[in-house]
Amino acid sequence: MDDKQEVGSPQGRLWNGPKGQVWVELQSLLDQVFKPLEDLLMEGVQAGMPDRLLDVGCGTGSTTLAAAQILGRRQRCIGIDISEPMIAAAQSRARQQNSSAAFVCADAQRHIFDPAGFDAIISRIGVMFFDDPPGAFANLRRAAREDATLSFVAWRSPAENPFMTAAERATAALLPDLPPRQPGAPGQFAFAEEPHIRNVLAPSGWDRVEVRSVDLPCRLPEKDLILLITRMGPLGGLLQEADIDDRARVIETARAAFDSYVRGTEVHFTSACWLVTARASAGSASAAGGSDA
Rounded to whole angstroms, what are the CA distances from 273 to 19, 82, 218? Predict the structure, then answer.
């Protein structure tokens, strides 16, 4: 199949449009904010030292590049993401760093991987956007060798991550068109519930599933807080369309909602996440065609 067709899917349109471009533009800031999540995944990479690693939803490449640095040039690290602008940024970073990491622009849910080609699959907040999670993880199982490791970090519930929703909650009365979050829909909190994670993985060819609750301290410069508020999440999308008077009022209201997180020149908050690990079940991978990954 032609992976380029997936650009026309809902997630393909989302991440190849303004949302993907925002992640490219804010690459440095977002890598800083999510560094504790990356470090958590790299502990597993360091412990397992796989020969061939796949990074799902790799974005602009930070986790793939970090894994490649740990594993060295004798191993292979490949990042996959549906976003063309983000993959282009990742490839540029790899060239600049003279990294052995490689990147593929494709939808990991449907991409035809070489069968049993990886002995480790990781993801930093990149697996919650599949429109068919069981099908996606079954496809990743076909890409994994028997007993390969799966390790990913996903957000827990919105209630446990008040920092993530503070801006939209504070400005809800000012923005009646702000789209409500749909529980269980593809997006940031799609894997908020532990039973859902297990219900997705078990029939998809993964066993020995462990779901561990982790609270990770994150931070960013206070000077960048307005940038994060006005560019990210549902609020960021609407602000691009608001008239200048409404926009100033919304930003002022949203910024006030973060006062309790500010400590001097930095903003501190807790990322309430799941660290999910599993193993590829024996005898559950089916044949698949070759690919460029």
Answer: 22, 23, 12
Burial class (CB in 10 A: 0-12, 13-18, 19+), 182: exposed
Q: How many CA atoms lie within 13 A of 142 on its CB side?
A: 19
Q: How far apart are CA 248 and CA 226, in angstroms?
A: 11
Proportion of the chain above pLDDT 90, given as a percent: 78
More confident residue, 1 or 187: 187
CB 163 within 8 A of CB 155: no
Q: What is the mean pLDDT of residues 44-73?
A: 97
* Model confidence pLDDT, tens digit, residues 225-242: 999 999 998 888 788 766
Chain center to CA of 152: 9
pLDDT at 290 over 80: no
Q: What are phi and psi of 167, to 5 degrees?
A: -65, -45
> Residue 91: what residue type?
Q
pLDDT in the model for residue 247: 85
Rounded Cα distance, 136 and 186, in Å: 12
Residue 224 tokens, joined: 């960048």
Mean pLDDT over residues 182-205, rounded? 93
> 96 with 28: CB under 8 angstroms?
no
Alpha-helical (H) ranges within 5-150 are: 10-15, 18-25, 27-33, 35-48, 62-71, 84-97, 133-142
- The amino acid occupying position 28 is S
What does the pLDDT read at residue 3?
Answer: 45
Greatest mean pLDDT among 12-16, 141-145, 243-247:
141-145
Token pair for 25? 């533009």
pTM summary value: 0.93
The beta strands (E) that lie in the chain are given as: 52-56, 76-81, 102-105, 118-124, 144-155, 206-221, 262-263, 266-280
Residue 119: name the closest of 71, 162, 167, 183 by CA: 71
Q: Name beta bridge partners: 64.
A: none
